[in-house]
Amino acid sequence: MTSNMNRFLFTRILKHFPSDITFAFAYGSGVFHQDGNANPNNMIDLVFAVDKTKDWHAENMERNPVHYSGLRFMGPSVITAFQEKIGAGVYYNTLVHCEKRLIKYGVVQVDSLTEDLNKWNHLYISGRLHKPVNIIRRDNNKSLSAALQTNLRSALTTALLLLPESFSEEQLFHTIAGLSYHGDFRMTFGENKNKVHNIVKPNLKHFQEYYRGFLEEEDHLHWDKDKGIYQQETSSACIFSHLQRLPSHLQHLMIKNGDNRGGDLEEMLKRISEDKNQAKMVNEALQKIVEKSSRSQSLKAIPAAGVVKTVKYSSQKLMKMWKRSTSNNR
């Protein structure tokens, strides 16, 4: 998925940072084409997963002090605590000039990322990874590798619970791509309302590559090649099977918000599978996860970026929104 030009660029970018990066990926409109957002100089979004967060920040602050806001003067221990104790466990430096491009990079601890991929505690970085990304570094970490696959499988399973009995391939990937935007307040202010569509349409082949293996393994799903649609089984037994495979935090919220009659996990999921409103319950649970993480990360971004960068970044978002609005009104 990475062109030679991008591969060389990412290699050069990584050389500016401490080498202790277990997993790194690039995403967003600066990496993948999005309809209505074709500027080749769009900011590149990156995420670095590291083992020893405090040590990594300490070295990075020595190498790249201007990347950080005034929080750097409080030292790497404070930066690390700020990263791990608030929001979704990721610390972003934004509007950074690197290799003649503008980049934004987030730092997350490997175990924290692995947990989010498995459980969807935050559905923040895990949500980014539902969609095509360019993996630019991947060390041999079996737990993380397994969690990355679990996250994709969970995205497919969740999407199937939200979809009707018959649906197109594009509907499927649109649903998957939209999971991490359920409840995201930024989608009503600042972000393009057609963001999910603009991600999926030009990147359909990438989504197919991501999910082909999981779709082929799905026993309750049939691809009608002549009609170009999927048909899924919607019996309570099939739905129960899907519910059992959901991330544990999503299961917990569905149970908490729904059936309160008690029992063990299997009994409660069984009752949900027989409830005609299970899609609504999935949707509401997703909204709770995403709303909390998106708000906390947005508030966290202000001290992390500093006032000047925050104003500049917000102004750019508002300018994009205004341009889209004027374009749509023509």
From TrEMBL:
Provide the E.C. number(s) assigned to this enzyme. Answer: 2.7.7.41
Tell me which cofactor or cofactors this protein depends on: Mg(2+)
Q: Name one Pfam family in it.
A: Tam41_Mmp37
- What topology does the record note for this protein and the membrane? Peripheral membrane protein
The alphabetized list of GO BP terms reads: cardiolipin biosynthetic process; CDP-diacylglycerol biosynthetic process
Localization (cell): Mitochondrion inner membrane
**Keywords assigned:** Lipid biosynthesis, Lipid metabolism, Magnesium, Membrane, Mitochondrion, Mitochondrion inner membrane, Nucleotidyltransferase, Phospholipid biosynthesis, Phospholipid metabolism, Transferase
Q: Which GO terms describe its cellular component?
A: mitochondrial inner membrane
Broad EC category: transferase
Molecular-function annotations in GO:
phosphatidate cytidylyltransferase activity
Tell me what reaction this enzyme catalyses. a 1,2-diacyl-sn-glycero-3-phosphate + CTP + H(+) = a CDP-1,2-diacyl-sn-glycerol + diphosphate
Q: In which pathway does it act?
A: Lipid metabolism; Phospholipid metabolism; CDP-diacylglycerol biosynthesis; CDP-diacylglycerol from sn-glycerol 3-phosphate: step 3/3
Its family remark reads: Belongs to the TAM41 family.
According to its UniProt entry, what is the function of this protein? Catalyzes the conversion of phosphatidic acid (PA) to CDP-diacylglycerol (CDP-DAG), an essential intermediate in the synthesis of phosphatidylglycerol, cardiolipin and phosphatidylinositol.
Q: What is this protein called?
A: Phosphatidate cytidylyltransferase, mitochondrial
Q: Which organism is it from?
A: Stichopus japonicus
